[in-house]
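In this section we walk through a basic example: taking a raw amino acid sequence and producing a predicted 3D structure, encoded as discrete structure tokens. The instruction is simple. Fold the sequence below.
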Amino acid sequence: MPPQFLIPIFFVCFVVTAIMVSTYNKFVRYRNRIEESWSRIDVALKRRANLIPNLVRVIEGYSAHENKIFEEKIRQLSGNSDTSRMEQESKITKSLGGLLAIAEAYPDLKSSGNFLD
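The resulting token sequence is shown next.
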């Protein structure tokens, strides 16, 4: 076979091989990006799962604190019948002042919106 036919045939084979290698490398790159994306999703889900127990503990602590405050208020409101109305109002006012001071000192008490959701 004359060389004038072999050179174009080799050139075409070389170009086809280069295109195939390039396409294979693109597929490998896409596969690696997909695996990396799934890995990031797995990390985010694991982090979320690790935060759930902390959230449960916060809600339990907040509900216990809220329960304690409401029980104290009920106990004070249903106090002795022999005390005068003025003394009861004075106790309620003092305890509400303490409650407001606690709420100002601990702004996380205002997170009841999250608790109710």
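Looking at the output, two observations stand out. The chain has a mean pLDDT of 80. The longest helix spans residues 3-77. In the next section we compare this with other chains.
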